Amino acid sequence: MTLADVDHASLMDKVYRQQRHIYDLTRRYYLLGRDRMIVGLDAAPGARVLEVGCGTGRNLVAAAHAFPQGVFYGMDISSEMLASAQAAASRAHLASLAFAQGDATNFDPGRAFGQTGFERVFMSYTLSMIPDWRAALGSAVSNLVSGGELHIIDFGQQERLPRWFKSFLFKWLAVFHVSPRADLRDALADLARTNRAALTFRPLYRGYAWHAVLRLP
After folding, report:
1. CB–CB of 199/214 below 8 Å?
2. To pair with 168 at 20 to 30 A between CA atoms, which of 1, 104, 147, 207?
3. Distance of alpha carbon 97 from alpha carbon 89, whole angstroms
4. What are the pLDDT digits (tens) for 35-60?
């Protein structure tokens, strides 16, 4: 990791050292659309699935249950969150789930997991917490095999919700170092053009969340 990566890892550990114990209980009320994204993974038997920023492991465990014949991996920059993820996998009796610490902007799956690519990569409310989120997108796409898919759910711009709600939400999110990415659609469109990929992009819940899928040829 670079010095910047180490600093960000330290910040995330500080933020989640205590919060990780109540994270899933509290986030269920406002991290909307996660289960919809998981269903959309549609992972075939034997498909390798990576979650970037796996956090407590909640999503990865749900995906492994939804597609039991897939092979699942999780990475996160926070060692604190990885401790929770590993505990969640153990409680769910999913000993086959593999985890590694790393930075989303330059993650090397070969070194971490002995894998050269994945059929599915997904990111759930992760980009809004990564300083160099565009680099993280590029890294995620580079870790897909031919025909692979990148699935994303994250905060939208609240475009069909009242202005006061957006103002309140964004100020509250900033306390947790969360910054919804207004240029996400444009960044994904650029990646789709560069990689000759297909892109679907859907606002959910009046723009509260954005759901995107990028499919490589």
Report:
1. yes
2. 104
3. 7
4. 999 999 999 999 999 999 999 999 99
Nearest to 133 by CA among 175, 89, 94, 177: 177
65-109 confidence digits (pLDDT tens): 999 999 999 999 998 889 999 999 999 999 889 999 999 999 999
Which pTM was predicted?
Answer: 0.89
Closest CA to 27 of 124, 97, 101: 124
Query: Per the structure block, which two tokens stand in for 200?
Result: 């679907």
Q: What's the sign of the alpha-carbon dihedral 203, 204, 207, 208?
A: negative
Q: How far apart are CA 27 and CA 14, in angstroms?
A: 18
Compute the half-sphere exposure of residue 17: CA atoms within 13 Å on the CB side of its CA. 6
